[in-house]
Write a structure and sequence with these properties.
It is found in: Membrane. By secondary structure, the protein is mainly α. The chain is built from eleven helices and four strands, in the order H-H-H-E-E-H-H-H-H-H-H-H-E-E-H. The radius of gyration is 38 Å and the shape is elongated.
Length: 385
């Protein structure tokens, strides 16, 4: 009897095998990628006597090579490499454009491009963040390799590429969306500034528009939108649709002129007068234009809500975008822009020294704020209402 029976009928002589050993030897490297230099090296190392088949047909069709075989040293000399690489490439036949070797068309046989294709661990995805991370990782990897290539060898001009057509489209759309949004806000600021001629009011209006666009962007991102062609077109409309309410209210504030007394920035009474005048102008702007702005936003909001009931996905997307945009535009315009104008609007000096900045009194009392129609009736130092 066997005093030490083996309980395992199939013992493993290597209890801790490494399924993916890191191998640097060309002879044992697993060929899980298309590296043409690897195939070319094996072709050059082949014995000259083993470069043809044994039967007569094989020897006729593929005669034994007397050159470009039997090498034992790698890398090869420049002369051997240039002489043999063309012969090896011709024997492989045609291949698709994104693999293999590209030669100069002038007949010199010089290699212009070497394409090495490998397998990636990242699965293809239409999601922009996944494609962006994959492209940056591949680019950083190849940049690290080409940076150590000999200068002037051509290898230092290598670049990374893959199936990135849709990612390239997404990247261009993303850049275009940011540029269109930024340019639209700048143009909105320029137009409001040109029409109102008030720097503070124009800046506050443009800031409000920017906050509206950023808030809408945050909402649609949280809803899981990925930036595509349709989403980019929708996003490019954000500034144009959100600037109406802020522009109208700031314009009404600027043109709601009031007579002010003792415009002094260096006294408490003067500052109180300036703040009080700005608050009254904001109140009058909301009183005269608030209902119009609110109803315009409400009707557009109802339109967006109806689109949410559609079955077409694009209509649902646009309905969500329009509803959020209208709700935030009205909210920011009334609850952010107007309080800011009431607080900081006096910095614009909404009166001219010639007709508005001199104290106007009647029967010993300071004149209450007047509408622009009444201000136009001012004649010199006298005033008729």
């Amino acid at each position: 009897p066997n005093p030490n029976p083996n309980p395992n009928p199939n013992p493993n002589p290597n209890p801790n095998p490494n399924p993916n050993p890191k191998v640097n030897d060309y002879d044992t490297l697993e060929w899980d990628f298309t590296c043409y230099m690897q195939h070319f090296r094996q072709w050059m190392f082949t014995d000259c006597a083993s470069t043809t088949d044994g039967d007569w047909a094989g020897s006729v069709l593929y005669p034994e090579r007397t050159t470009c075989c039997g090498h034992t040293a790698f890398p090869f000399s420049e002369n051997d490499f240039n002489a043999c690489i063309t012969e090896w490439a011709l024997g492989r036949g045609d291949s698709d454009y994104d693999t293999g070797l590209w030669f100069d068309t002038d007949g010199s046989g010089d290699i212009k491009v070497i394409v090495i294709k490998g397998l990636a661990t990242t699965k293809y995805s239409d999601v922009y963040n996944i494609g962006d991370a994959f492209y940056k990782d591949g680019k950083d990897f190849l940049d690290g390799k080409t940076s150590s290539a000999p200068a002037g060898s051509g290898l230092d001009n290598g670049f990374f590429s893959s199936e990135l057509w849709f990612y390239s489209l997404q990247d261009a759309i993303t850049e275009g969306a940011y540029q269109s949004a930024g340019l639209s806000i700048i143009l909105a600021l320029a137009v409001i500034l040109m029409l109102s001629q008030r720097a503070v009011a124009s800046t506050l209006a443009a800031t409000t528009i920017l906050l509206i666009v950023l808030s809408v962007t945050g909402i649609i991102v949280k809803e899981g939108w990925t930036l595509g062609v349709i989403e980019s077109v929708v996003f490019s409309l954000a500034v144009g649709l959100s600037c109406d309410f802020a522009a109208h209210l700031s314009h009404a504030f600027v043109h709601g002129a009031y007579l002010q007394s003792e415009l002094s920035f260096f006294s408490l009474r003067g500052v109180q007068g300036l703040l009080g005048a700005a608050q009254k102008r904001a109140t009058r702007a909301i009183t005269e234009l608030g209902v119009t702005v609110l109803m315009g936003g409400l009707t557009t909001l109802i339109t967006g809500c109806w689109l949410l009931l559609a079955r077409v996905y694009f209509y649902q997307q646009f309905g969500l975008f329009l509803s959020c945009l209208m709700a935030l535009s009205v909210g920011y315009s009334f609850m952010l822009l107007m309080p800011l104008l009431a607080t900081l609007g006096w910095l614009d000096a909404p009166c001219t020294p010639e007709n508005l900045c001199t104290p106007q009194t009647r029967d010993g009392n300071t004149i209450e704020p007047l509408s622009q129609k009444s201000i136009d009736k001012i004649d010199g130092d006298s005033m008729s209402v």
